[in-house]
Amino acid sequence: MALLQISEPGMSAAPHQHRLAVGIDLGTTNSLVATVRSGSPVCLTDMDGRTTLPSVVRYGEGDAVEVGKAALAAQKTDPLNTISSAKRLIGRTLADLAQDAQYLPYRFTPNERVVELNTRQGAKTPIEVSSEILKALKSRAEETLGGDLVGAVITVPAYFDDAQRQATKDAARLAGLNVLRLLNEPTAAAIAYGLDNASEGTFVVYDLGGGTFDVSVLQLTKGLFEVKATGGNSALGGDDFDHRLFCHLLEQNDLSKLNERDSQLLLSLVRAAKEQLTSQTEAIVEATLSDGRKIHTVITRQEFHHLTQNLVQKTIEPVKQALKDAGVTKADIKGVIMVGGSTRMLHVQQAVATFFGQTPLNNLNPDEVVALGAAIQANVLAGNKTDGEWLLLDVTPLSLGLETYGGLAEKIIPRNSTIPTARAQDFTTFKDGQTAMTIHVVQGERELVSDCRSLAKFTLRGIPPMTAGAARIRVTFQVDADGLLSVSAQEQSTGVQAQIEVKPSYGLDDDTITQMLKDSMSNAAEDMAARARAEAVVEAESLTDAVNAALELDNDLLDAEELAQIQQDIADLQGRLKDSNAEDIRAAVTKLSRSTDNFAAKRMNRNIQRALTGQSVDDI
Ligand code: ADP
Ligand code: MG
After folding, report:
1. Which class is domain 524-612?
2. What biological function has been recorded for the protein in this entry (predicted)?
3. I need a labelling partner for 60 at 20 to 30 A (CA). Which of 168, 328, 381, 484 fits?
4. How far apart are CA 22 and CA 382, in angstroms?
5. Counting atoms of ligand 1 from 1, which one is nearest the CA of 238?
6. Integer Cα distance of 395 and 482 in angstroms
7. How far is residue 328's CA from residue 255's CA, in Å, rounded to a whole number?
8. What's the pTM value of the predicted model, to 2 decimals?
């Protein structure tokens, strides 16, 4: 949109309709969707009143796809076609998973770019699986809220790298969701708590979910959340506690090799037992295996704590590291926010309390807190928030840099830098007469490029031939608010430039995604046309609102002819809203947007002038 919306300090923007936006916690185990209603965030429920949707997708007969509880229930009987924990696989390759893959009950298709699971409906990537979960949450939201969504904020673990973030965005795109922003889960939790408690100081977010452990150190000041450091373990969560109990059960019953059906059955039973042990001191696992053997095992809370105490302790090391990274000590921590279903376990609460010497904060539901925070952020980004603005700063989870001579990695943006950020560094040629330079972008903490993750390569050509070391090439790294990177290189004397938006060299490429989108469109061409139209109408209305509001304030900046043109374009656009197609509406939007370009520029000048009037140079 060309038109700049500017409101005077202290004055709210022009009144406009409430735009439907949601926050989505796309979890390894459970996913949730929340929205802000009458100023407060709430999680939306399914028809049975549940807020959590198990992150499980089953590819059934024909083209039937089940998501959530029904899929979870089928996991025991149809493990090969029922995909859970897709989040552990998203944005990764089989090589990344290494031996982990052998513990998963799926059939993997050999593919170097992306993990692919062979189901009865053909090969499915974790991106497609996740998009089914997002679609289910999207329809839940649209049915509950009675309208199309303007967009969503989707949360990701702080540990997610570029590929995993990009893959999450791709999943959203496939689900037909407009991603307003990706948000780190611990940051979302802090938003939920920050608004409720209006606290200031340094806080720790301890998030133990089903598949990941994240810890973040946050600095909260009035209206500002700053993530000082993040850490954790992307392969530690409630699943591991289930696994310990599972092994214990096998030992107790002298079982060695189980078929997939029996393993899935026992796994779901030990998980239920584990959850019971937070409110009971004993739980019983009872089952009949495929070969008719009966299992009856009593597990006490004490036994369970004993079996898993070292898993709990494993979370403390990353906590210490994050404190160190943030340059703070335990004594500086004003509060510890507990997030994730696994923080319900009593020995987890205890260990955290003991380490910090204080009772952790858990007055918000640990399952819901991330989605609630995401909803608050979505509400702000959709433009619904009218009172005081607040800033949100996030950090990069890993260092970003490039390869220099000798295969060494030079860090440009160190880990835990606040984003969005941009940093430049000058490099030079190492050979006389060198006219091209390959920029190899890497991510990681290690010194050698071979130990870091390669993100992208591009070449700057047309460097004027000079003696080695004379050329000056400025390389600029820019990380946007979603944590996605773009890199540019410029030779300083000639201005020759090359740049790249760093798209990971793994995951789905754009063509594949476009093809998938096309496929889904040809299945539901009418749906898509209706959706495109609805989106165009939303865009048209928001532009019209903005122009009308601007005209009310500043129409004296326009001469009669310009004003008449704008008014005619508004009328034309309004005329098309009723029955024109998406393309025609968009054409009118573009026309109005063009005819207001000049107006926008004049308004900006006026506002800058107003802002500067009456201030001395020292104030600026
Ligand atoms: P994720 O963010 O990974 O999707 P959640 O925050 O939803 O995960 O947490 C899911 C985990 O929490 C599962 O391992 C589940 O067994 C565990 N969990 C949920 N409720 C309880 C409970 N009452 N006691 C112990 N663990 C629980
Ligand atoms: Mg979670």
Report:
1. mainly alpha
2. Chaperone involved in the maturation of iron-sulfur cluster-containing proteins. Has a low intrinsic ATPase activity which is markedly stimulated by HscB.
3. 168
4. 9
5. 14
6. 10
7. 48
8. 0.64
> With a 6 A CB cut-off, is 30 part of the ligand 1 pocket?
yes
Q: What gap in Å lies between CA 445 and CA 226, rounded to an integer?
A: 22
- Enumerate the domain spans of the chain: 21-238+307-395, 398-507, 524-612
Q: Please list, residue by residue across 3-18, b when 16 or more beta carbons sit within 10 angstroms of its beta carbon and e when fewer do.
A: bebbeeeeeeeeebee
Q: How far is the CA of 83 from the centre of ligand 2 (A)?
A: 18
First to last CA, the chain: 29
CA 369/CA 190 separation, integer angstroms: 9
Q: How far apart are the C-alpha atoms of 31 and 473, rounded to whole Å? A: 46
The better pLDDT of the pair 482, 488 is held by 488
Strands 224-233, 391-395: parallel, antiparallel or unpaired by DSSP? parallel
254 among known catalytic residues: no
The one-letter amino acid code at 340 reads G
| DSSP label at residue 87 | G
Output the CA 321–ligand 2 centroid distance in Å.
21
Q: 239-267 pLDDT, tens per residue?
A: 999 999 999 999 999 998 888 789 888 99
Tokens for 532, please give them: 């495109």
Answer whether 28 contacts ligand 1 (Cβ < 6 A): yes
Q: pLDDT by residue (tens digit) across 335-374?
A: 999 999 999 999 999 999 999 999 998 888 999 999 999 9
CATH 2.60.34.10 fits 398-507, yes or no: yes
Q: What sign results for the dihedral spanned by CA atoms 131, 133, 136, 139?
A: negative
Q: Decide whether any atom of ligand 1 lies within 6 Å of the 54 Cβ.
A: no
* CA separation for the pair 247, 529 (Å, rounded): 52
In 255-368, where does DSSP find H-type helix? 260-276, 301-314, 316-326, 346-356
Summary mean pLDDT of the chain: 84
Give tens-digit pLDDT for 391-415.
Answer: 455 666 677 888 877 778 888 888 7
Query: CA dihedral defined by 132, 137, 138, 144, rounded to 10 degrees?
Result: 150
Given this model, what pLDDT does residue 454 score?
78
**Is the previous residue joined to 126 through a cis bond, with omega within 30 degrees of 0?**
no
Indicate if ligand 1 lies below 6 Å from the C-beta of 238.
Answer: yes
pLDDT (tens digit per residue) in 530-577: 767 777 887 788 788 888 888 988 889 999 999 999 999 999 999 998
Tell me the pairing of strands 65-67 and 82-84.
unpaired
Residue 315 CA, ligand 1 centroid: distance in Å:
16
Q: Which CATH superfamily is domain 21-238+307-395 in?
A: ATPase, nucleotide binding domain (3.30.420.40)
Band (pLDDT 50/70/90 cuts) for residue 615 is: very low
Question: How many beta carbons lie within 10 A of that of residue 297, not counting itself?
Answer: 18
Which tokens hold the place of 223?
């209206």
